[in-house]
Amino acid sequence: MVKTNLAFTSQIEKGTTPTVWTVRHECLDVAVAPGFEGELRNRLDAGPVVLDLAAVRFADSCGLAVLVRLNLQPGGLSCLNVHPSLARCFSRVPADKLPPVIEQMRLDHHAPPNVRLHPNHNLVESTSGADS
Questions:
Q1: What is the SS3 assignment for 57?
Q2: pLDDT tens-digit readout, 22-61
Q3: pLDDT band with cut points at 50, 70 and 90 for residue 10
Q4: What is the CATH number of domain 2-126?
Q5: Which of 10, 43, 66, 89 could form an SS bridge with 59, CB 3.0 to 4.6 Å?
Q6: Contact, 17 vs 128, CB < 8 A?
Q7: What is the pTM of this model?
Q8: Residue 51's CB: how many other CB atoms inside 10 A?
């Protein structure tokens, strides 16, 4: 399922817990922050969310503020595939204020039983759980 919100596009992987939400916009900025925050808040109300940020290269103060605010919300938020240029943006915020970043992993015999290979990135995602 692909959702579009203003200039913001994302893809939600159904049937995963946590919900893996692939952000397909290059910037988390003032133009997309309000819609992004609303969508993300709704997802977090339903349970943990992993943001796949592979396509995101920049976050301004508005985008970073959304991540900081929603990191405080119960439900569990984390980030996956943080590009180096986005990591530089993240470095402007104290690390304990941002959602944790999940490092890239290859599927091997050390992987937990509830993970599978991401079809596009050779990364591990959770496969247990609820519908979003």
A1: coil
A2: 998 899 999 999 999 999 998 898 889 999 999 999 999 9
A3: low
A4: 3.30.750.24
A5: 89
A6: yes
A7: 0.69
A8: 28
